[in-house]
Amino acid sequence: MPQPGSKKYNERRARLRKDAESQGVSDQEANEEANATLQQNPEYRSRGPRTERGQGPQGERHER
User: If the chain, 64 residues long, is cut into consecutive pieces of 10 residues, what is the mean pLDDT of each piece?
Assistant: First the structure.
């Protein structure tokens, strides 16, 4: 699944921006709208750190 910052995520965001701009939405609003659309979609949301190291110092980790 694509995550924010990945190539697939950025390609999808660019496509959404282009569609919004062609409908007359300003550049800044098109960017914000594309990000909001992708963040609402569970397929494109970040799922958090993938490794134990990414979860922070061992003493500060939360148990799942």
Answer: 75 92 91 86 67 69 65
23 by Cβ neighbours in 10 Å (0-12 / 13-18 / 19+) ranks as: exposed
Rounded CA gap, 39 and 33, in Å? 10
The string over 33-63, giving b where at least 16 C-beta atoms fall within 10 Å of a residue's C-beta and e elsewhere, is bbbeebeeeeebeeeeeeeeeeeeeeeeeee
DSSP-assigned letters across all residues of 13-63: HHHHHHHHHHTT--HHHHHHHHHHHHHHSGGGS----SSSGGG--GGGPPP
Model pTM score: 0.60
